[in-house]
Specification:
Strand content: 25-35%
Strand order of the largest sheet: 6-7-8-3-9-10
Helix content: 25-40%
Order of helices and strands: EEEHEEHEHHHEHEHEEHH
Number of strands: 10
Largest sheet: 6 strands, mixed
Structural class: alpha/beta
Number of helices: 9
């Protein structure tokens, strides 16, 4: 296994004295696809927000690319720019698809590279829509634009929160294919949250099961699904876990 790009130690997040995340330790390896599954309210989206430095932990430590980040410690712009996140309901600019995709590079002061942006749109089946206004797109098209925008500046880590929820099979296939290609060709570390256990099995190198804010089990994908070690994991996979 390669080196860890993230190391989480005694990480705890509370909202109004309610513990929503309590992870004693978790390593996320450089270049892997880690899929996080679990019921609603288990802390999956909170974990992504902490990994993206959108909010601080209540206590504990996040080590990222060798840098220790403690609650209240400012995170440098350089480190922040190594991570990007695609939300389940993406917010797009009221501008063209191409402008949306190029936006991330523009705010980072990077060259526009419109040719590369066009090729990225073509790969996601969006080339014919490059001049269209983003708000006029379908849900699946909007999700693909958000993904293209995130990939345009080649982040080291891509965080995906239910990237294919409520999408049709065509869009699911396109997005899953790009996730695999991105990881294989560029070595991008991907942390993906999903309720779809079939998608988790298709995409994940490792799968983590989060329950009540804690990592109950984490294992290589095939082992996770074929021989889960924890009874709660087995109950979740069998649809028997009540929450």
């Amino acid at each position: 296994m390669s080196e860890a790009i993230f190391r989480l130690r005694n990480l705890r997040k509370e909202y109004q004295q309610r513990v929503v995340l309590d992870i004693s330790h978790l390593d996320i390896y450089r270049g892997e696809i880690l899929v996080v599954v679990g019921p609603n309210g288990s802390g999956k989206s909170t974990l992504l927000r902490l990994l993206n430095f959108l909010e601080p932990a209540t206590s504990g430590e996040i080590e990222f690319m060798g840098h220790s980040i403690l609650p209240g410690t400012p995170v440098s712009l350089h480190l922040r720019r190594q991570v990007t996140m695609v939300f389940q309901q993406p917010a797009l600019l009221n501008r063209s698809v191409l402008t949306n995709v190029a936006y991330g590079r523009k705010v980072r002061g990077m060259p526009a590279q419109n040719g590369a942006m066009t090729r990225l749109l073509d790969r996601l089946g969006l080339a014919a829509l490059a001049g269209n206004h983003a708000p006029t797109l379908s849900g699946g098209e909007r999700q693909r634009v958000a993904l293209a925008r995130a990939l345009a500046f080649q982040p080291a880590v891509l965080l995906l929160d239910e990237p294919t929820a409520n999408l049709d099979p065509y869009n699911v296939s396109l997005i899953e294919g790009l996730i695999r290609d991105l990881n294989r060709e560029q070595g991008t570390t991907i942390v993906l949250v999903t309720h779809n256990v079939f998608q988790a099995r298709r995409l994940g190198h490792r799968v983590a099961f989060l329950l009540n804010g804690q990592v109950v089990e984490i294992a290589p994908a095939e082992q996770f699904f074929s021989a889960p070690q924890d009874a709660r994991t087995r109950a979740f996979l069998n649809g028997e876990l009540v929450w």
